[in-house]
Design brief:
48 strands; Elongation Factor Tu (Ef-tu), domain 3; 1 helix; 14-stranded parallel beta sheet; mainly beta; globular; 515 residues
């Protein structure tokens, strides 16, 4: 075949059978090599099942200008099937450059039962994987595009081998990993540690779904896993967007691990144990509903799984001031998880978990949000701990926020969720080993530890502001018998005092009871 006519290379012209019997690896590799030698082109797979045994396919080049596309043909399926292959089924191999620029309408499947088998590795800038199905890979990414800026993965269905089902799927496995690119309309099922991993600049996932994995989306990628959280190597994400994501039967729906300027919008987490925050800056989480069902265990999620909002490490500092929550509804038991694996104060009776060093949710603005949390967290014998001392106590905060508008967080008692409007809230319920704290009272309800207007210069988290005219519903902590400064009785700030709930308004000098 003359070299210059090889713009479209039909693998059957190079001896591939596609009958699901013959080993077509050598023939397909010859077709790829012909396209590479001709300066690039299209490798075409007519409908059929092309088995390649235990060997992989290499599409690499020493010339960065060479581009090769893989296309399946017609309405019938075109599939490439491997078996117990170690490495990636399709990759650049040892070549300097990845020549793959597009994989379209091809099923890539591996019959492996060996950990360490991956699907497609793309490092070429601007590469695309479209309308394809990828199945059966263990231990390496099904699609790895971390090194491919402005890459696109669209309309791809991925099914993993269910070697280890949730809650601890095979550590380190990733369905689609992408850097500075777009994942759109993809569906991923089964036994991945991480379904989708985003890194780089402007990465996004939209209109996609996943189920039966440990983590749905990790924003800010790292090879660490739930079973091995100390693995080195990180790829942060800047300006990432997670929208239109539907998840089921996961441990964590969205993990913001190294996320800067992230937006989480319009997602539905069902039978899923929700959102995890790592080091997060300037995040917006809006327009979604999360339904946590760990206690009832209807979807095979064991009790005590990771919870809706988990703190692994959320640093004390300024980045939260650009963080916003809007129109978010979160319901269900076991909503918050204060424990972490970093050094800290051991959780009572459990030396493997520690008090978190920052709040579970910390943001600048919360608008029209309703968060109901019925239990403090993992193996926790106490109700929610909302106490906050801005100078000395920087842990165990459920919610810290400057501007709350229509909606708040309500522990245990959910009868009046819409009426709670707090800038700061607290509870005397802390571990009795904390110095100066009254013994824990599991029957106490949330109260306001220190409403705005009573600030100290060292409290950088709540700068003074124009609070005149704002109204807040409160619970008088003195009703529960706790001594100052943790009683929040408002005897010096609220005219009339009283027990239970009442409404107060700040007039610029004092908090006054109204109504």
């Amino acid at each position: 075949m003359p070299a210059r006519l090889v713009d479209v290379v039909n693998v059957k012209d190079w001896g591939a059978k596609g009958d699901n019997i013959a080993n077509d690896r050598a023939a397909i590799q010859a077709a790829i090599d012909a396209a590479l030698a001709a300066g690039g082109g299209i490798v075409f797979f007519p409908p059929g099942a092309y088995t390649i045994g235990t060997g992989g396919l290499t599409c690499g080049s020493e010339n960065p200008n060479i581009s090769v596309n893989f296309f399946g043909g017609g309405k019938d399926s075109s599939g490439v099937y491997g078996a117990n292959h170690s490495g990636y089924l399709i990759s650049k191999g040892s070549a300097t450059y990845d020549a793959i620029s597009r994989i379209d309408s091809i099923a890539v499947e591996n019959g492996s039962t060996t950990v360490g088998t991956g699907g497609i590795r793309i490092t070429r800038q601007g590469a695309c994987v479209l309308d394809s199905n990828i199945a059966g890979f263990i231990g390496i990414d099904a699609v790895d595009a971390i090194g491919a800026s402005i890459a696109s993965v669209s309309g791809v269905g991925i099914i993993g081998n269910l070697v280890t089902p949730p809650p601890m799927c095979t550590a380190g496995t990733i369905g689609i990993a992408i850097g500075s690119g777009m994942i759109y309309g993809c569906r991923l099922m089964g036994a991945w540690d991480i379904a989708f991993a985003l890194s780089g600049y402007g990465s996004a996932i939209s209109a996609s779904s996943t189920e039966s994995c440990n983590i749905g989306v990790r924003v800010g990628w790292s090879p660490r896993s739930l079973s091995n959280p100390t693995v080195a190597g990180e790829y942060p994400a800047y300006g990432a967007v997670v929208e239109g994501l539907q998840t089921e039967q996961l441990q964590i729906a969205v993990e913001l691990y190294r996320a800067h300027g992230c937006v989480v919008h319009g997602n539905a987490f069902t039978g899923t144990v929700g959102i995890a925050h790592g080091n997060v800056t300037a995040m917006s989480w809006s327009g979604g509903q999360a339904h946590v069902t760990t206690q009832d265990n209807p979807n095979g999620i064991p009790d005590g799984s990771w919870l809706l909002v988990n703190v692994n490490w959320l640093p004390i500092g300024h980045p939260w001031r650009q963080t916003m929550m809007q129109q978010v509804t979160v319901t269900g038991p076991n909503t918050f998880h204060f424990a972490m694996n970093d050094p800290g104060t051991p959780w009572p009776g459990n030396t493997s978990w520690f008090y978190a060093q920052g709040p579970s949710i910390r943001c600048r603005i919360a608008t029209e949000c309703a968060i109901i949390a019925n239990q403090a967290g993992h193996n926790a014998p106490y109700p929610i701990d909302l106490d906050y001392d801005g100078q000395a106590q920087h842990r165990n905060n459920v919610y810290v926020c400057d501007d709350v508008n229509r909606g708040w967080l309500m522990p245990t008692d959910t009868s009046n969720i819409a009426a709670w409007h707090f800038d700061r809230c607290g509870s005397p319920i802390r571990h009795p080993s904390d110095p100066g704290i009254a013994p824990s009272n599991p029957n106490a309800k949330m109260h306001v530890a220190d409403l705005p207007g009573n600030f100290t210069p060292v409290n950088e988290f709540f700068p003074p502001g124009p609070f005149e005219g704002q109204e807040y519903d409160v619970i008088d902590g003195s009703a529960f018998g706790f001594a100052p400064p943790h009683d929040a009785g408002f005897a010096d700030r609220v005219i009339g005092g009283g027990n239970g709930r009442y409404k107060v308004r700040y007039d610029g000098q004092h908090w006054r009871r109204i109504g």
